[in-house]
Amino acid sequence: MRISIAFTHTFDSPEKITREECQSIANTFWSGSAEGYFVKVSHVGGNCDIEAYYLGEARHAFYSLDESGHLQVRAPMVYLNQIFASFENATIKELEVRFTSINNAHCNANPSHEHLDDMLSVSHLSYCDWTPEEGATIPTSDEPLLEGDVEEAFFSLNKGTVGPFIDMPAPVNPFTITPTPSQAEEPASGASADAASESSPASSRGLVIAVGAGAALLLLAAAVGITWARRRTS
After folding, report:
1. Which terminus of the chain has a smaller tally of CB atoms within 10 A, N or C?
2. pLDDT tens digit string along 103-114?
3. At 227, is the secondary structure helix, strand, or coil?
4. Distance CA 58, CA 36 (A)
């Protein structure tokens, strides 16, 4: 299972996210380490992409499955909304949750779009989409966003397991832990930027944050677009 976060600048701002800022975002919001968890960070063309992977039992941070075969899917919306609220001006543009190996699915929290029970080769695909511009309200809790009946492919292909939701093993939440100066300067555990730092003069910037959860093993996907502005000093 993968959480994908893509940060890009807005079209009306000539400034792009620097490599230094990209790594700083990863260090601040997607740091930490845990079994079955690792992070990749890349900076290409002024865009900052963070991918956090959850393997094995760590995936239960995103899905629960009971003995009757009822499966629930969620995204870490409390934490993502904390990230969103930490910037001066921010607007969440979109959230999408996507899952395969689930049938008889339904979406919760009144999405603006839902596409349910599409037949794939050996299982079904469903997704729910929340777009505020189309009247939807972005969820703010960690309640399940998609539910349905698990299919055999969930076990045979995706190696899914029965079990309840668990607390997200990583990242370390900066809103609940105050880092020491030395911790704040360390790179995110498991994270790496693909180039050296850059610097630029103080400015007021407009950036777009796209936050997503895309499935690698279970094909869960969520995407949140956040428009934000903040002030950076050199």
Report:
1. C
2. 999 999 999 999
3. strand
4. 6
